[in-house]
Amino acid sequence: MSPFFKIKTYLNYWLDAVDEHSLHAPFLFDFYTNTIRRETGELIAIENLRKKLLKDERTIEVTDFGKGSKHTNASTRKISEIAETSLTPAKHASLYHRIIMARKPKTIVELGTSFGINTLYLAQYPESTVYTFEGADRIADVAELSFEFAGAKNIELIRGNIDQTLYSTLSRIPKVDLAFMDANHRLEPTLRYFELLLSKSHHKSMVLVDDIHDTPEMEQAWKQIRKNPLVYVSIDLFRCGILFLDPSLNKQHVVLRF
């Protein structure tokens, strides 16, 4: 992706973004001040694991099912290189952790495990089960080791192409309380996965969409997703989008500083 696209999209975000002083809806004001902007520390054990991955010079075979590397098309890559470009930043992983602890979802679906750092943040609510999907088998191997290292017992890792695994897994899950989408960055699969997740959602469900301004296709997907009739509140934080499906909320789209 050209640097110009990145600069343009961030400039548009910067010009549109507001803070709590522009939020009149009590729900949005509370969510922004007490969850999004609340200062919490990183989880040290998980961040120590991130540091290990960023220094790991071992190479693994990588199968790309859609997202792709932003820097190389090589099928054999260093773990450190993959970690550098694919792991959720600590700032955002901490945000997702705050959301989890505030909302207390019992069933969480994550599309795009990578090495499991974000998964571990999502899995901190002990009464939850996290179903996380990873298409690249060797990356999934590393994620499994991450979960073992952290002692996580509430994570189920589903391997294989999400085109095949998502539907079959959702068929055995009664409902999805929170979904995190960070897998395929193309328009059609993103919209298809969203519709599948909606089929298992309820009015208190939330959907988090990562990299909403990463590519033109992701921007288009984000615009279509937030206009879905079942979406009542959408929040743009530049890197990620947050969707609420609660019909008791007034329809609103906001761009917020983060």
Q: Over the alpha carbons, how many angstroms does the gyration radius reach?
A: 18 Å
- For this structure, the quaternary state is single chain
Question: What separation lies between the terminal Cα atoms?
Answer: 23 Å
CATH-derived architecture: 3-Layer(aba) Sandwich
Number of helices: 10
CATH fold node name: Rossmann fold
CATH class placement: Alpha Beta
- Arithmetic mean pLDDT: 95
Number of strands: 10
Could you list the spans in which at least 5 consecutive residues all have pLDDT below 50?
A: 68-72
Descriptive keywords:
43% helix, 258 residues, alpha/beta, globular, Rossmann fold, eight-stranded mixed β-sheet
Task: Tell me what you see in this structure.
It is built from ten helices and ten strands. The protein is of the alpha/beta class and 258 residues long. It has a single domain, classed as Vaccinia Virus protein VP39 (Rossmann fold). The strands form two sheets. It has an eight-stranded mixed beta sheet with strand order 5-4-3-6-7-9-8-10. A hairpin with a 3-residue loop joins strand 8 and strand 9. Helix 8 runs parallel beside helix 9 and helix 9 packs parallel to helix 10. The radius of gyration is 18 Å and the shape is globular. The two termini are 23 Å apart.
